[in-house]
Amino acid sequence: YCGMVAIVGRPNVGKSTLLNKLLGQKVSITSKKPQTTRHRILGIHTDEAKQIVFIDTPGLHIEEKRAINRLMNRAAASSLADVSMVIFVVDGMNWTADDEMVLQKLQYRNDDRKIVLAINKVDNIKDKEALFPYLNELGQKFDFDEILPISASKGTNVQRILDMAQTSL
Ligand code: GDP
Ligand code: MG
Question: What are the boundaries of the region G1 (predicted)?
Answer without folding.
Answer: 9-16
